[in-house]
């Protein structure tokens, strides 16, 4: 069990009814995470994706969440105000069932990091670029359990091991260790 700590909780409130599907949020996010920053934009690299079905007037901004190794056995299908949404529309997982939230070249999972950077942004970039206020940023302080050290590293390594095999990862780490020593 981790320790309790006071932490800033960052929330982006999504008002689906206000989203017009312009995809400015996708452009902003992918540009912010390009290397070097703002050098390119490609919505496929964005950590927010807009599910768009203009004929049904459906625009759902979804944030990339946790990486799921395997497809889940269940499927969610929502009907809201008479509009029927596709299966998994609201799911945030990067999972094998779809291309969403995967780095297009490497296939590695993408996850929203709330635009963590130094210096800190006043508001996440997707929120700044959303002129309809479909995305609204809020923050508050709360007492939370500290994540066990290395949890994120484990997730990243697991994804790499799934893609390339554990042996290849171990070989690469061994090569890197030798290079560092030399
Ligand atoms: S920028 Fe705002 S309105 Fe445009 S697609 Fe994204 S959430 Fe929707
Ligand atoms: S908060 Fe930042 S990282 Fe997350 S989706 Fe928006 S622009 Fe991308």
Task: Please explain how this structure is put together.
By secondary structure, the protein is α+β, with helices and mostly antiparallel strands. The chain folds into two domains: 4-146, no CATH class; 148-182. It is built from four helices and six strands, in the order E-H-E-E-E-E-H-E-H-H. The strands form three sheets. Strands 1-6 form a two-stranded antiparallel sheet. It is globular. The chain starts with a strand and ends with a helix. One iron/sulfur cluster is lined by residues 28-29, 32, 47-48, 63, 112-115, 124-126.
Précis, in short:
The chain is α+β, with helices and mostly antiparallel strands and 182 residues long. Helix content is 24%, strand content 21%.
Blueprint of the fold:
Layout: E1 4-14, H1 24-32, E2 48-53, E3 58-63, E4 79-80, E5 83-84, H2 125-129, E6 135-145, H3 151-164, H4 166-181
Helix pairs in contact: 3-4
Bound molecules: iron/sulfur cluster (SF4) (2 copies).
Features:
single chain; 182 residues; alpha+beta; two-stranded antiparallel sheet; globular; binds iron/sulfur cluster
